[in-house]
Backbone:
């Protein structure tokens, strides 16, 4: 939804849906049989064969929303800023370090410049930050302490905290010819 509240400002609100549940597992296929997979197969027969390893993800589908504003400085220049609120797609009991991307905030600033009647330039700079805290023995993908969880459990019995930071820059140049 975009609302031009005054001649020089526009407010934007966006709602998006992502079908993350379609990505159900990491599947590793090896070119030969591996001994450690035989041991894993005994304790987790649904996730290991002599030459494959399946790490279930159990992601959930997610709605996200964002809000932004645009300041029309002149007929040629627009300044933009916004924030997107992303909830985690990973259930609490499935957190892991292979996918450290939990709930996050995405902050963006940018500008649009109309060079001439046929040419536009857009630039943006964005910062995304996600922090996940996984208390000991709460996710069998990272820190359970039971003996049967050997497929992927690198921090058994430990508290785990992940932090993911991404800085992105974008530039687009559009012209008619």
Residues:
């Amino acid at each position: 939804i975009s609302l031009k509240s005054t001649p020089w400002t526009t407010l934007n609100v966006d709602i998006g849906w992502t079908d993350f549940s379609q990505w159900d597992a990491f599947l590793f296929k090896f070119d030969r049989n591996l001994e450690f997979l035989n041991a894993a197969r005994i304790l987790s027969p649904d996730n290991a064969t002599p030459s494959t390893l399946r790490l279930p993800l159990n992601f959930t589908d997610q709605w996200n929303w964002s809000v932004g504003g645009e300041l029309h400085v002149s007929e040629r220049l627009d300044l933009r800023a916004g924030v997107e609120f992303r909830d985690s797609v990973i259930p609490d009991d499935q957190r892991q370090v292979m996918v450290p991307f939990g709930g996050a905030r995405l902050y963006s600033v940018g500008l649009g410049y109309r060079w001439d009647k046929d040419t536009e330039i857009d630039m943006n700079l964005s910062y995304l930050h996600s922090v996940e805290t996984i208390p000991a023995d709460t996710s069998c993908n990272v820190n359970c302490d039971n003996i049967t969880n050997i497929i992927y459990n690198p921090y058994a019995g430990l508290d785990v905290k992940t932090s993911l930071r991404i800085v992105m820059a974008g530039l687009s140049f559009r012209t008619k010819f």
Observations:
- The chain is about 5% helix and 50% strand.
